[in-house]
Amino acid sequence: MSNAHFPHLLAPLDLGFTQLRNRVMMGSMHTGLEDRFYNYGKLAAYFKERARGGVGLIVTGGISPNRRGWLLPFGGTMNSLFDIFNHRKVTRAVHEEGGKIVMQILHAGRYGYQPFIVSASAQQSPISKFKPKALTEAGIESTIRDYVRCAKLAQKSGYDGVEIMGSEGYLLNQFLCVRTNHRTDRWGGSIENRMRLPVEIVRRVRAAVGPNFIIMYRHSILDLVEGGNSWDEVIEVAQALEKAGVTLFNTGIGWHEARVPTIVTSVPRAAFASVSGRLKQAVSIPVIASNRINMPAQAEDILASGTADMVSMARPFLADPDFVNKAAQGRVDEINTCIACNQACLDHTFSNQRASCLVNPRAAHETELVYRKTSVAKRVAVVGAGPAGLSAATVAASCGHDVSLFDSSDSIGGQFKIAMQVPGKEEFKETLRYFAKRVEMTGVKLHLGKRVSREELIELGFDHIIVATGILPRTPRIDGVNHPKVMSYLDVLLHKKPVGKKVAIIGAGGIGFDVAEYLVHDTNIPLPMPLNTWLGEWGIDLQARQNGGLVKPEATHPAREIFLLQRKASKVGAGLGKTSGWVHRATLQRNQVKMMAGVEYQKIDDQGLHISVGGKQQILDVDHVILCAGQESLTELMPAQTSETGPRFHKIGGAALASELDAKRAIKEGAELAASL
Ligand code: FAD
Ligand code: NAP
Ligand code: SF4
User: Fold this and answer.
1) What is the distance between the alpha carbons of residues 380 and 397, in angstroms, rounded to a whole number?
2) Distance from C-alpha of 132 to C-alpha of 124, rounded to nearest angstrom
3) Hey, CA dihedral for 115, 120, 124, 128, is it positive or negative?
4) Which of the four, 192, 292, 552, 666, has the lowest number of CB atoms within 10 Å?
5) Are 603 and 620 in contact (CB under 8 A)?
6) Rg (CA), the chain
7) 492-532: per-residue pLDDT in tens?
8) What single string gives the DSSP state of each residue in 573-625?
9) Ligand 3 pocket test: which of 46, 318, 347 has the largest number of ligand atoms within 8 Å of its C-beta?
10) Which one of the listed residues 40, 46, 170, 518 is annotated catalytic?
11) Cβ(356) to ligand 3 under 6 A?
12) Does the beta carbon of 661 lie inside 6 Å of ligand 2?
């Protein structure tokens, strides 16, 4: 019977020899757990929760077919019978919940961050400090054999199939494109030669695993790099792969080295789905759409319009393992939505830490952060309904405590209400929608418009008082800081005070960058930005007529002239997120924002902001100076001394530590404290 809420998304997909229970795939994500055999119990618990949540097909993180294919030293590898025992924990856990799982075979090629890397040609990538060796013909043959052995071992481990990773600029992509393949033998030159390696791998894997095993191929349908493939080549490769034995196509957008964003929060939702639609018209096997799809309604639209046969979402399953069950039951307002921040997932992966999720700190920590029902319910006050307080209050209440949540403002959200005013951060409102629903469902008693005092809280007889009152913006000591030209970021983003055409921003941290993006934005362009405007700004041709889909970006028309300043001598924006900082820097550069490091602030007066850079005096004759100079903890509710009697006080989020604060730490601290009460 078809689902009343999302009939296309929840319809089964028949692959002939097997059936998927719905059209939702959890795409591959490297958590870090797959790299160590002793973490496979944790990995199994992580996948089990997602299978129980109803997802139709799961793809593991990348597993290398040999050591030269490692992304990082000692990465997850499947090349011996010994590996089967670990992987069986995973496949058993998923099958027990009625799910299906395929193992991704990923050879990193020149993206590997280790000294033994190989590629089509000996050409270093911009994202690894190691130079690859060009594979010899014999090396290519042995790589094909390694793929085949890896797939057979995956089959023995109980996987329902494999995904062969052919996109994002990894080894097979490196063979496919002239950007990285300069060979003159039968593995380079014409597209027939360049695609020989992936096609041979698929053909021989199919011969080895038989007909009743899924071979999914992740095909790069828009390379977004110079020297990437044209659309005609993309199709030619796809048709050859289908003939060689692929069961279904997953799609990949952009190489990791591409200078065009493909998944960060400012990318419009489902921006690239239409490209999957064009692939679907050219092949006869199912095609999966991917990239920035994070809510069931969009996924349903993609399927209902015939654009794809299945939808891949990866990060949304870190954010909410129950995504599919909630959608199926019409409980969409309960979904904890991925806000595409990358802060706890990709930023962790690329700095060699275990991945998790900003909005769900349990992700990949299922056996460690456990929300158990309490046997002794406590009376808990949480002061501050920002991310830290919301997390603490809702987790504590879900564990069975009696929780009252106070905020002096008339709505929940704290600084997230300010963050979501920034162009490209519109998704942040989803987190507040989710928490509002959790507050209602868990029975938290919400008191808004109430600035509570310590005495009041003590009088009310709570067992625990959690201070989550956040921060106050820092006012730097600069001569003339009270001049009428001076504004705080709150004046701009929250109070929407008018801002002149020429502006200096003091402080180039996360908020300084956000304020700059807000101020260059032309208010005539609606937010979120329409897809075509966004594509034009980044120079993307979805038709991929040439050059991997890159064209000349359209000129921007910034609404203001902006100076973004910091005292440190380091590169401006160096402290931003590893996988998203470059997008912010590129956006501001395109909008001609002047970023200045090593600045000494001298005074502010009617002439503007007086500064010195490298001993040279300058006056920035600006209309306004906007302070984004960091934050200081607001801790007025904390007692000066701890007492043996009375309630126990705790500090979390910005109230505990303002420097290096972000919502990832705030939400995690709230959840961990609440789970420990
Ligand atoms: P807050 O969010 O500051 O919440 C504190 C709450 O306490 C407020 O609601 C306040 O009204 C209430 N309160 C204070 N005193 C009292 C009292 N006495 N009684 C009752 N209520 C009280 N972080 C990221 O991780 N990623 C981002 O991309 C990001 N972008 C940002 C963009 C902007 C423009 C801003 C301003 C912040 C951004 N942040 C971002 C930072 C993030 O919002 C904060 O780290 C997070 O909100 C801190 O959470 P918190 O709960 O500790 O404090
Ligand atoms: P921040 O990142 O710590 O940046 C503060 C900026 O102010 C720095 O550029 C600092 O640089 C400058 N500064 C500090 N003290 C100063 C002083 N006394 N006088 C003049 N300048 C001073 O803090 P934030 O921008 O306020 O952001 C708050 C938190 O929100 C951050 O920790 C961040 O993680 C989070 N956030 C994250 C994002 C994101 O995209 N991930 C976006 C927004 C906010 P100098 O000392 O070199 O001058
Ligand atoms: Fe999504 Fe951010 Fe969580 Fe990553 S950390 S899954 S991008 S919400």
Assistant:
1) 9
2) 6
3) negative
4) 552
5) no
6) 26
7) 999 999 999 999 999 999 999 999 999 998 776 777 788 99
8) TTTS-TTTHHHHHHHHHHTT-EEE-SEEEEEEETTEEEEEETTEEEEE--SEE
9) 318
10) 170
11) no
12) yes
Top mutation candidate among 339, 567, 613 for ligand 2, by most atoms within 8 Å of CB: 567
d(CA 508, CA 41): 42
- For residue 412, report the phi and psi dihedrals to the nearest 5 degrees: -80, 165
Q: At 88, list the tokens.
A: 């069986």
664 CB near ligand 3 (under 6 Å): no
Task: State which H helix or E strand residue 101 sits in.
Answer: strand 101-105
Q: In Å, what is the CA distance from 438 to each residue of 88, 328, 359, 446, 582? A: 36, 19, 13, 11, 34
Q: Name the residue of 342, 427, 662 to mutate for ligand 3: max ligand atoms within 8 A of Cβ.
A: 342
DSSP state letter for 528: S
How remote is the CA of residue 664 from the centroid of ligand 3, in Å?
9
Query: Does ligand 3 have an atom closer than 6 angstroms to the CB of 263?
Result: no
Q: Which amino acid, residue 638? A: M
Helix axes 82-96, 137-156, angle to 10 degrees: 50
If you measure from the C-alpha of residue 507 to the centroid of ligand 2, how many angstroms do you get, rounded to a whole number?
6
Nearest Cα residue to 519 out of 417, 583, 592, 414: 592
**Residue 112 above 90 pLDDT?**
yes
- pLDDT per position as a tens digit, 153-174: 999 999 999 999 999 999 999 9
Q: How far is CA 306 from CA 211, 283, 285, 302, 311, in A?
A: 27, 14, 13, 7, 11
- The pLDDT tens digits for 456-468 are 999 999 999 999 9
- With residue 19 as reference, give the H or E element that holds it: strand 19-20
* Residue having the nearest C-alpha atom to atom 4 of ligand 2: 509
Select the more confidently predicted residue: 266 or 536: 536
Please tell me if the CB atom of residue 414 comes closer than 6 angstroms to any atom of ligand 2. Answer: no
- C-alpha 604 – ligand 3 centre gap (Å): 40
Does any ligand 2 atom lie closer than 6 A to the CB of residue 572?
no
Number of C-alpha atoms within 13 angstroms, CB side, residue 147? Answer: 30
- The residue among 144 and 575 whose pLDDT is bigger is 144
